[in-house]
Amino acid sequence: MRYSVPRSLSPSPVRQQAQPTKGRSTYGLSLVESSDSDVSQDDDENNLVYDSESDEPERPVQVRPPRTKPTPEQRQIEETLAAIRLRTRHHDPYEEWEKQTRKDAFRVARKDHAAMQAQLLSDRDKAQAQEDRRLAAIHTRQVAEVESMLSSLKIQQQKEEDTLKRGWQERDRALWARIDAGIKVEEDKVNAKVEAERKAREEQEKKRAEEEARRKAEEDKKKAEEEAQKRAAEEKERLRVEEEQRQAQQDQERNARLAAEADGRKAIGLTTAEDDWRTARQILLTVKNETMKPIKAEKVRRSAWGEYRRKITPKIGQLTNDANAIRDITLFIQSQIMVPTSPHPPMLYTGLCSSLAKAILLQAETEVTAEKKAAIPLAQLTAALLDGGLPSFPEVLFARLAQRCGPWAIPCMLPTTDVTGQPWPDETARAKALGYRRSVEDGVAREPLAEYMQRIAGCMRVYFAVLRIPPNAARPINSMFQMPRVWVWFARLLGNERLLESPVAAQLIYTALDVLGSYALQIWGHQWVKMLELMYLGATVGFGSDGDKKKLIGGPSGEGSAARSRLKMEVERILSGR
């Protein structure tokens, strides 16, 4: 539905306000009830504008027949139609004035635009003409420059042609000179060749005589060298025999001394290095032959052993330097693996002890080799397991340590025979008893010395850290894991010259001092200072009666020199109290 709204006051001087007419609604709609024609006529009359009310003619009174009152819908339709007619027939002078004003403004704008365009075209033509004159001047100047350059190039080309002609002439003269010289050289060569052949025959005869003399001198020299090598071999053999005799005499004296001291050692519970090695070797062979082989041979035992073994390895790998974590892992290994509610059979328990010891040592070889601080939690776990009262575990652990580190865990020289009394089958078996691994890269019997030293040092660092931890007073611990073992280890190593010549000795002494040096000084005091002085002399002056430089601790190799330097600095640090 559309409504007509009264217009606002117009600023146009020709427009006047129309007077309100009778019969219009507040929205400008006619409310007179009439037919369509009547409504149209009334609208035309009501829309007329007069200067005053007195000019408006009187309307005749029309008598209309009565009609029925329209419904609201009809009234709404009629009002809508009346509004539409009113809108279509209305004429607004303001709109006409506004349209005319727009036309005038547009005409003026077009005139100004045309003038502006003409001015712009004129300015552009002037600028273009000026640019054309400038370009023509530049072109003329460039043409003159190009002509000048071409002239100079032509002169230069002529000079070069003259130079080339002179060069060709010189080359021709030189070529003919070389040809003449070549001919002369060939003639000289022929003459020289004839002369050389004559001299060669003479020289050949002379060389033949000299060769015979040289051959005779070489034969005499070879005989002299053979005699010198023979004398050197005899001297070397004599020295070897003397060394063997001296070593045998020392061994005999040592054995006699040990035999004389056997009763005293037995009374106080001391053993020799050879006894300790044989004991550890015997335990290792017993575990391998009488425990592990039967377990692996039977499926039920192998399955049970593998189930518990797979629980040990992750726990050892999860070890951190946290007291709560160490305690939890210790309790888990003791209560859930080693000593559960239902006890294991003796064979399975021994196999688990071997697996636990192997896991600890493998962790030491990998983690401690990379980071020395990793030995602390591993040593605390090992000490807690040793204090936990696990039967046979200390013996199996030390046997595994002797297997991984060889005789360096005791230390002693490897005997020429095994504990069975049989000699070692080959060099590979002997190297394995020394703790060497077979190299995976080149397949040799022994791994590189540097890797061997690092791996042995990692295991021994954990062992020395275990010795430093005070044991539980309520339960005795194996003698191999007590603090006095440190003194025994140093005394045996420093008393064996053949062991001290190895680079491994210098590396292990440094490792032991790094872990136990300051702590041992607090325990043994002045006696430990004497031990440190002995080590320092061996690393600086040398050991032996003559103090030979070739008998420094660690030997003359590069690995030994590096380990010896670390050893000297560690002794200096301990003695300075830092």
UniProtKB/TrEMBL annotation:
Keyword Transport applies: yes
Transmembrane segments: none
Composition skew (Acidic residues), residue ranges: 35-56
Keywords of this entry: mRNA transport, Nuclear pore complex, Nucleus, Protein transport, Translocation, Transport
InterPro entries the UniProt entry points to: GLE1, GLE1-like_sf
Homology family: Belongs to the GLE1 family.
The protein, known as: mRNA export factor GLE1
Annotated organism of origin: Mycena chlorophos (Agaric fungus)
